[in-house]
Amino acid sequence: MAIRLTAALALLTALAVPGDGGAGSDRVDSRIAVIVLENREIGEVIGNPRAPFLNRIARRGALASHYFAITHPSLPNYLALLGGSTFGVRENCVECTAGGPNLALQLSRAGLSWRAYIEGLPHRCYRGDAAGVYVKRHNPFMYFPSIAANPRRCASVVPAARLDADLRRRTLPAVSWIVPGLCHGAHDCGIEVADSYLKRLIPRLARQLGPRGFLAITFDEGTTDAGCCGVARGGRVATILKGAHVRPGARLEGRFTHYSLLATLEDAVGVSRLRHARSAPTLRAAFRR
């Protein structure tokens, strides 16, 4: 039996207001947030003077320095993060789908609110391929019929402007999934642009995560085929955890993948692990005992 983080974050479940998707706000004192950035090997981030804020939180939080994306290009990595598999997807397709359960569906069924804040998304449930700084391939939620075809769950996939409003009103859901647009996510712009974006966002976000909540920052893929663990060959990327319950300055031993992050999230909220996440090593060493 795997050691779970549930004991540390049990209030996420115990105090949640039952509901489907992210409607309303959970009365929880601890929350989780995930931010996914783009296309950087760890050496382009950690130690890079053009990313001073990211390096500061890496020093003050926990860094998984041997963490690997699953594959190339973007979309299958996003599907892996949300669903524990690439679902046979090998390209940035638009009309393809990923069947079966995913983290968002698990949260909904557990009565925990969630919301995906997607920069550039024209409106809730938008099904188009691209619009300005938005591209569908960075929005895995819209590839799962259990979300995209369900109006209540789909309503939790929202433009990033909603994040500003939720932070202002202190109404973050139990789990927030944040995807910056093509520039702020470092896809089309330099890492210094992403660093400035995070510097503006994360202090506001961190103040509302609570004593047992945490923030996870990762990159969808690197620029090499570095990999590990028999399932990953998408490059070695930086993954950082930050929060009051995260051990400051922790450097995580071992090798991890996107399935490790999904497993960590699932353990934290007390739901079963999906697909490849079942056997993945978790990031639990980042947390205080």
Question: Secondary-structure map with pairings?
Answer:
Blueprint (H helix, E strand, L loop, with lengths): L5 H4 L1 H4 L17 E6 L14 H9 L1 E7 L5 H10 L19 H7 L4 E5 L11 E2 L2 E2 L9 H4 L2 H4 L2 E3 L1 H9 L5 E5 L11 H16 L7 E6 L16 E7 L13 E2 H12 L20
Parallel strand pairs: 1-7, 1-8, 2-10, 3-6, 3-7
Antiparallel strand pairs: 2-9, 4-5, 8-9
Helix pairs in contact: 4-10
Structural features, described:
By secondary structure, the protein is an alpha/beta fold. The chain has ten helices and ten strands. The strands form two sheets. It has an eight-stranded mixed beta sheet, sandwiched between helices.
Characterize the overall form: globular
Oligomer: single chain
**What's the arrangement of strands in the largest beta sheet?**
6-3-7-1-8-9-2-10
Coarse structural class: alpha/beta
Number of domains: 1
- Kindly report the name of the CATH homologous superfamily: Alkaline Phosphatase, subunit A
CATH class: Alpha Beta
Q: Provide the residue-averaged pLDDT.
A: 91
CATH topology: Alkaline Phosphatase, subunit A
Q: What does the radius of gyration come to?
A: 17 Å
Please give the CATH architecture: 3-Layer(aba) Sandwich
